[in-house]
Amino acid sequence: MMGTMREIRYEEFGGPEVLTLHEDAPESVPGPGELLVRVEMIGLNPLDGKIRDGSSGRARHLQLPAGTGRELVGTVLGGGEGLDECELAARGVAPGTVVFGMRNLEDARGTAADLVAIAADDVAPVPLEALPDQLPQYAGLALAGLTALAAIEDAGELQAGADVLIHGGSGGVGQLLVQIALQKGARRVWATGRAQNAERIRALGAEPIPYDQVDWRQTIQQATGGRGVDLVLDTHYFTTFEPSFDVLAEGGRIVVLPSLADLAPARERGVDARIPRIVSGRERLDRLVALQRSGHCDVEVSEVLPLASIAEGQRRLHEGHTRGKIVVDLRGGRGE
Ligand SMILES: NC(=O)c1ccc[n+]([C@@H]2O[C@H](COP(=O)([O-])OP(=O)(O)OC[C@H]3O[C@@H](n4cnc5c(N)ncnc54)[C@H](OP(=O)(O)O)[C@@H]3O)[C@@H](O)[C@H]2O)c1
Q: Per-residue confidence at 332, pLDDT binned at 50, 70, 90?
């Protein structure tokens, strides 16, 4: 007989209130090429809310009821067809291994459940020295980290020696953008954020620009002697995208994160503007681990919530001013 588990689901698109905790959902079963993972913690992302309220392109073909959440850290319990114990061991994900990862773009299932089935290539082992203390950091690393790599390497094509401006330098993705841009050899990195986040931005190695106190365009023009920056990485978009055209150096580029951003104003001004597309998979997850171990991917977890408070976490993310990552801990309800 099949067992039951806890799972967060929603029956209709809407605000965080549509999220419902089910205590007796049928246990997940891994399909071919999938792992069965006991979820320990999940990281929350603005994308969760955009899928849940139906505004994301990812919601277009979603079958309701649906689960929520994209990323996780958890313990491998076994594998589906094609993944016997030998194959799991060969991939470094034998039963008992703690892994982290993110569902790929085509996989619309959630991660906020006691057990999930997830493609084996969508997770990577968490290094032993990180356990158990860094479980929350690894729960929030995959989506923001893969986004930062896609923004800096694929869309941004950041070159060593470049001057970079990051909008939203203390957010989930922004903090990793700062660190990875510096690791890639950026010459100077400025990052906007409210004054209360300036210290964190400075600690990451960027020059903070408190946008609630100073005019960031003026600051960049003064600091670069009117030249501007080679690359803008814009995690905010709404009030920052078009004004950023004025601080781009000749031949500069802007990478804007929200997938629904309208690039037409950039085209009209002849500005090179791009939206990054996440490349998921084991190779990049392993690179994130290497970056993390060498101190270039430090995830700040600002809050850890129980599973029953996931709606509150998504509500706060929607407000747009959380710092680092919010993580949900599923272990409590299981008596661990
Ligand atoms: N294209 C993709 O594949 C992809 C992947 C991941 C994420 N995204 C999108 O990227 C965006 C950022 O994601 P995230 O996880 O980093 O979000 P987040 O953790 O909620 O961070 C948002 C940040 O924006 C800052 N902010 C708010 N108003 C601002 C303003 N006027 N000027 C500058 N910064 C401002 C906030 O800092 P303060 O509190 O200091 O204002 C906060 O640090 C979201 O829209 C998300 O959906 C896209």
A: confident
